[in-house]
Amino acid sequence: MPAALRFTGDDKDMTLEELADFLEAARRAGVPKTNPVRAELSTSGKIKQVEVALAEDDD
Questions:
Q1: CB-CB contact of 39 with 49 (8 Å)
Q2: What SS3 class is residue 42?
Q3: Looking at the DSSP assignment, which residues form a beta bridge with residue 38?
Q4: 43-56 residue pLDDT tens
C-alpha cells in the first residue's frame, strides 16, 4: 500500500469529531475521492482506526 493517512481514536474508539477530522485531513491532502477507506473495528463494531492511501489506490 502506498503512503497513507491514518487516524485512531484518542480513547479506544473513534468519535464522530475524530472521524470528521480524518475526512478534513484527507481532503486537504488531496486524497483521490475514489480511494477506499479501510477501518479497523472493535469486537463491538466501533471504529478504532481509519486509513486511506494518499495516492491513487488500485488495491
A1: yes
A2: coil
A3: 51
A4: 999 999 999 999 98
3's grid cell? 503512503
Task: Give me 23's grid cell.
Answer: 475526512
Contact status, residue 7 vs residue 50, Cβ threshold 8 Å: yes
Report how far Cα 49 is from the mean position of its chain's Cα atoms: 7
* Distances in whole angstroms, Cα of residue 32 to Cα of each of 15, 45, 53: 24, 27, 9
Neighbour-count burial of 51, counting CB atoms closer than 10 A to its CB (0-12 exposed, 13-18 middle, 19+ buried): middle
In terms of residues, how long is the chain?
Answer: 59
| Contact between 2 and 52 (Cβ < 8 Å) | no
**Whole-prediction pTM:** 0.85
